[in-house]
Specification:
By secondary structure, the protein is α/β, with parallel strands linked by helices. It has 13 helices and 14 strands. An eight-stranded mixed sheet has the order 3-2-1-4-7-6-8-5, with helices on both faces.
């Protein structure tokens, strides 16, 4: 890391119109161009891409890391991060246009004194399109976005990104990483290096890779700050919503397999807002369903192994959450010397593909949950198992 204040990292492939607009905004920054660089992880090598970069070389420093590898946004970001040299790393998507005082405001208010924090900025205009199919877009000149940014500067921006709304306040405070978006985040580069905070390239497709990065940032002891004075305008681009939905399902299972946690499995099943509302009640219900164990820790989990020679997943198995071992009664159900895989998941969401096990057996403790939660577990068990076995309904206790 040298004397540069900021390195702006942008992942890129086949978005020339967006790239030109994004670089146009960065070329108008009030921060002196000698104090920042733009590092692009470009997963293509074309004359058209190089030509767009060349348009701005007399105004800003643009560094390109080029590869012809298959598109992976996390790999593109990582390639660029590994070449960054500024004090502060800003991760910015190519479809974000920032105001002229963006870098100066970000650095002066959040990093001037060497603060160790991760700033998450508003993505204005993203909420209106992120769940919609977009086949064609109108490419507008940069003058249009310059005018939009000028209007926003004088506006009340507090709720223009839903993550900043009052509805999200409680969930935002409890699960700040869940609202991190790599479209606009910033943290000290030394923190990235110190804690190995590159993005996980195992996320191959649209989904929660930014949440997972935010979670690891939070685990490092770095606070996440959602800053309403740091913002960008989201640019339109083509979007295949059906493909995004398919990729998100796979990404969520990868995420849950990596971090098997109650809050995450609930969020995949019900969303983060509802998880914030119900998680305390769910914890109480799970404790009752697991039953008392004086002097010992007990919870419900899943256990997978061979049972009568068939690949079987038990859902609602009583386990020791600290050692991730099933209680003796559960262990005895499996074939002798069977290798067991234990996850501390109640079963609201599971990291397995559809029909991944021969038998999915829901154990009696699940029937002690409230109807809504019991039904969610059974639906997920039905998805995962080629054959489903459920207990009689004992009802909540």
């Amino acid at each position: 890391m040298g004397d540069l204040k900021v390195s702006v990292v942008i992942p890129y492939k086949q978005r020339l119109d967006n790239l030109r607009l994004s670089l146009s905004a960065l070329a108008e920054q009030t921060m002196d161009s000698s104090e920042f660089e733009v590092v692009i992880g470009a997963m293509e090598y074309t004359h058209e891409y190089l030509s767009v970069c060349h348009e701005f070389l007399d105004r800003i420093t643009v560094v390109s890391v080029l590869t012809t590898d298959a598109w992976n946004a996390q790999r593109a970001r990582n390639l660029a991060i590994q070449q960054a040299s500024g004090q502060v790393l800003v991760v910015l998507d190519v479809d974000m246009v920032v105001p002229a005082d963006f870098l100066e405001t970000l650095y002066r208010r959040y990093f001037l004194h060497g603060q160790n924090q991760c700033v998450v900025g508003q993505m204005i205009g993203y909420d209106e399109v992120y769940t919609e199919q977009v086949d064609t877009v109108e490419v507008r000149p940069y003058d249009h976005y310059r005018a939009v940014l000028a209007e926003l500067r004088a506006a009340n921006r507090g709720g223009l990104d839903s993550r900043w709304s009052k509805e999200y306040a409680s969930a935002r405070d409890r699960f700040p990483w869940a609202f991190a978006r790599t479209a606009l985040m910033a943290l000290p580069l030394r923190t990235v290096h110190q804690h190995g905070l590159l993005l996980d390239e195992g996320f191959d497709g649209w989904g929660p890779e930014d949440q997972e990065w935010g979670f690891r940032i939070a685990l490092s002891g770095t606070p996440l700050v959602l800053a309403d004075d740091i913002y960008a305008v989201h640019l339109p681009h083509a979007r295949d919503q059906q493909a995004n939905d398919r990729e998100a399902k796979l990404s969520n299972r990868y995420y849950l397999g990596k971090w098997p946690r109650l809050d995450l499995e609930l969020a995949i099943a019900f969303g983060w807002l509802e998880t914030d509302r119900c998680i305390d009640d769910v914890r109480r219900q799970l404790a009752v369903a697991a039953g008392p164990a004086p002097g010992r820790s007990r919870s419900l989990g899943t256990v997978r192994g061979l049972l009568e020679g068939r690949d079987t997943l038990l859902v609602g198995a009583v386990i020791d959450p600290e050692t991730r071992t099933p209680v003796p009664d559960v262990n005895a159900l499996f074939d002798p010397r069977a290798t067991l895989s234990v996850l501390p998941l109640a079963g609201f969401s599971l990291p397995y593909p559809d029909d991944d096990v021969d038998v999915c057996r829901v154990l009696p403790p699940i029937s002690r949950l409230g109807e809504r939660f019991r039904d969610a577990v059974i639906r997920e068990a039905e998805r995962v198992g080629q054959t489903l076995s459920t207990p009689p309904d004992e009802g909540p206790r």
